[in-house]
Amino acid sequence: MNRRQVVAAITGLGLSGGSLWVAQNGLSDIQPRHAKQLPVRVETLSARGSSAGETRVPTPGTVTVVDLFATWCAPCDDQLKILDAIRPEYADVSFVSVTNERPSENLTRADISEWWNRNGGAWTVGLDPGSELLAAFGADGLPYIAIVDENGIVQFGHSGLADEKTLRDELDALV
Question: CATH number for the domain including 162?
Fold first, then answer.
């Protein structure tokens, strides 16, 4: 192995480790604030817990957990499982998951619904192909979780995998 290959291998390992750390720990948390351009109207899909149509995100007048995901994002699978585990404890909280992926012949609405069903989703799932929610929340990576209070103020925002304890603590402070 020559020097160039060794440097490339070390750089690759460093980037992989850094990416894993970000996926597990996130890049940043936000302080309470009004997110720009909320609410955003998104198309909803027919899938378990979700009906085809449209909805406003966040849900007006209700504490809302907004999960921004992509079907190709491995940590997003884990985030969905965490949300599924805590959701039954918060009956008065609206849960909405939204992908910014654009449906096409390579990734259809049916493909997204199938991914949703396979990964345990059981609440509203929507499409935001214009990435309006990513922009409104200032999200800097996926998965991204925002918790918005009933007045539309973002009380929590997190890029990367948010753990159960943190989400419960944030929700318990609002409900």
Answer: 3.40.30.10
3-state DSSP of 50-80: ECCEEEEECCCCCCEEEEEECCCCHHHHHHH
pLDDT over threshold 70, residue 146: yes
| DSSP secondary structure letter of residue 157 | E
β-pair partners for 50: 47
The 8-class DSSP code of residue 46 comes to -
In the numeric block, the tokens 């291998």 are attached to 9
Count of structural domains, the chain: 1
pTM above 0.90, yes or no: no
Q: Which structural domain range is residue 54 located in?
A: 28-172
Q: Which stretch of 14-23, 91-100, 108-117, 161-170 has the lowest confidence by average pLDDT?
A: 14-23
The amino acid that residue 33 corresponds to is R
Torsion of CA 144, 150, 154, 158, to 10 degrees: -30
Q: Is 35 helix (H, G, I), strand (E, B) or coil?
A: coil
SS3 134: helix
